[in-house]
Specification:
With 142 residues, the protein is α+β, with helices and mostly antiparallel strands. The longest helix is centred in the middle third of the chain and has 16 residues. Helix content is 33%, strand content 27%. It is built from 4 helices and 5 strands.
Amino acid sequence: MVRKATANDAGQLSVLNDEFNGAGGTTLDSIRNSLLYNQQEIVIVDDEHGILTGFVCVQLKRSFCYDKYSAEITEVYVRPEYRERGIAGQMISFAEDYCSRNYPLHKYELLTETENVISQSLYAKLGYSADGELHLSKQIKK
């Protein structure tokens, strides 16, 4: 069952995040607090009888330049043993529906690695396409 995540999901989301992004990126307390208080992020999970099989994170961004939000899908992860069952597509569709019903939006954005052609195929089926913009990033040196 695809649903919005709650603070009770923090433990399992911590494990999934470590699998996806590597250990040490955040703490269990930070995940729990984000689920409770971060109003800019929507986290969607797939729950198979109490076991979380994957998650999607959506960041809500709003600039004074626009009256509406843009929603950026920043993370999409499904455990390997649950892949090829349509779970990622179901979570993304649920996230889009949830955000469209609850926020004034003018677009969805999604970033993925250029080499990730399997995911790009899914995203194209869901209506996403290259928009001609170049995404740049800069790492913070410590």
